[in-house]
Design brief:
CATH architecture of the largest domain: Alpha-Beta Barrel
Shape: globular
Structural class: alpha/beta
CATH superfamily of the largest domain: Glycosidases
Largest sheet: 8 strands, mixed, barrel
Order of helices and strands: HHEHEEHEHEHEHEEEH
Number of strands: 9
Helix content: 40-55%
Radius of gyration: 28 Å
Number of helices: 8
CATH topology of the largest domain: TIM Barrel
Number of domains: 2
Length: about 270
């Protein structure tokens, strides 16, 4: 009898230990699952963030010697003389959007940048599917584009008003009006406009439709590769840090040498 009691107690103890072990294993499994989920969350958020925040990023800082910025009224105070001292060569300025919006700081920015001795370019934010000729007229009427300035640029990207064109009707209209805008700018300035875009919009709208335009590629993670045959400018940061600028600023590299940079200038 005593032996049976001891055996039962031993069996109960083993069962308790077994159940406790199972709870420990379950707790460890849950902990690993939570940690894995947190890791995935941080990885996804990290992947969305840009990797570069300044021009001090070897090997790019040695590879690309022509540096630029782009600004609009969203930017705060900029000391352009200081940017010249930081070896900034050019600046693209937003002038217009759609067929009626004008950037309120454009003309003041144009003057002070020219006075600082930097090369200036002007860009238009294209509104998808809206009358391209009217957008071109709005840009031409309100922009300062002179000999020695950079070729005007068209900004083509998704936004709150530029929804992805996933159906044929909206896609065809978007491309048609963008071509109308491009044609009007070629007629006015004698050069194909630079097209600013990102990987997604390049794939959706630019590739195959605008094979001969110089490209200004936005990629916050990787240097543009050979998939962009005509890329000339790489925008690599939206939160750049540089002396002379109070808050964040967009940073860009020109692809080639100072001598070749002249090909981006209007005669």
């Amino acid at each position: 009898m005593a032996k049976r009691k001891r055996a039962r107690r031993s069996q109960r103890k083993r069962l308790k230990i077994s159940k406790k072990g199972q709870r420990v294993v379950q707790l460890i499994a849950v902990s690993f699952t939570i940690l894995f989920a947190i890791g995935i969350f941080y990885f996804i958020n990290y992947s969305k963030k840009e990797l570069f925040h300044s021009f001090d990023n070897p090997p790019f800082s040695q590879k690309y010697t022509v540096r630029g910025v782009d600004v609009s009224h969203h930017n705060s105070y900029i000391n352009w003389e200081k940017l010249r001292e930081e070896n900034i060569t050019f600046a693209y300025l937003k002038s217009t959007e759609g067929s009626n919006h004008k950037d309120r700081d454009y003309k003041r920015n144009y003057k002070v940048i020219k006075d600082a001795g930097l090369r200036v370019g002007t860009y238009h934010f294209y509104t998808f599917g809206r009358d391209g000729k009217k957008q071109a007229q709005h840009f031409i009427r309100n922009s300062i584009v002179r000999s020695g300035d950079l070729i005007p640029a068209i900004d083509v990207e998704h936004s709150a008003i530029n929804r992805p064109c996933n159906d044929k009707e909206s896609y065809d209209k978007m491309i048609k009006e963008l071509k109308n805008l491009e044609s009007a700018l070629i007629k006015q300035y004698g050069k194909r406009p630079v097209i600013y875009t990102n990987k997604e919009c390049y794939r959706m709208y630019i590739k195959g439709n605008f094979p001969d335009n110089p490209l200004w590629i936005c990629d916050l993670h990787d240097e543009p590769g050979n998939g962009y045959k005509n890329w000339a400018i790489w925008q690599f940061s939206h939160s750049g840090k540089i002396n002379g600028v109070v808050n964040d600023i967009d940073l860009n590299y020109y692809r080639n040498s100072f001598d070749e940079f002249k090909t981006l200038l209007l005669p």
